[in-house]
UniProtKB/TrEMBL annotation:
SMART domains: AAA (SM00382). PANTHER family: ALIPHATIC SULFONATES IMPORT ATP-BINDING PROTEIN SSUB 2, TAURINE IMPORT ATP-BINDING PROTEIN-RELATED. The lineage of its organism: Bacteria, Pseudomonadati, Pseudomonadota, Alphaproteobacteria, Rhodobacterales. Gene3D superfamilies: P-loop containing nucleotide triphosphate hydrolases (3.40.50.300). It comes from Vannielia litorea. This is NitT/TauT family transport system ATP-binding protein. Belongs to the ABC transporter superfamily. The keyword Transport applies.
Amino acid sequence: MIAVEIHRKSFGQSQVLGQLGFTLGQGEAVAVLGPSGVGKSTLLRIVAGIDRQFEGHVDRPERMGMVFQEPTLLPWRTALQNLTLVHRELPEAAARVALEKVGIGDKAELFPGQLSLGQQRRLSLARAFAGRPQLLVMDEPFVSLDPETAEGMMQLTERLIAEVRPAVLLVTHAREEATRLTGRILHLQGSPAVLRAEGKDHLRSVSP
Ligand code: ADP
Ligand code: MG
């Protein structure tokens, strides 16, 4: 179970996040939707434990996988080493299977710079799932891809989620991605930003 409770998050004088919280059950997938600049990546970095400069508390599982907008690969290591150096307990044979699963099994000995952007994204997806994460956090993983590549990546992601069954936190500004990959949508909005569950507006408008 993942529990996020943030009281506030500021950069210097500027407060980005206000009071917000949510929980995620085992295998549950939630999307955080919001416009550019609202604080989505800031929230995700706090949940992932990358940013610890905030007021609040996060309970997260031990094994986590992350997929970012940029593939964030080690440029001087081969595709295979990008898996085995991050997941030190992962046998080489298992790493090769992980590369095959994302369709780049024949690229194991190539460096990230020798891969297309789409292949780099596949590699970062393989890396995120190779440790069999209990929580997968994704930050706009399909932006700036052509529609065909984005579709392929999304199908691959759906398949890997179905196989590994992590809890998923997907941060995006694209509604279609959110509804396709998750069962629950939260909106991040305002300044400082807070979360609103989808449909709440409607409920509020009909209550006295
Ligand atoms: P989103 O991911 O929703 O586009 P971000 O979380 O990246 O938004 O940014 C939210 C706000 O916080 C923006 O105004 C951004 O400029 C600011 N911000 C993000 N990271 C930093 C940082 N390291 N230092 C100062 N301001 C930051
Ligand atoms: Mg962002």
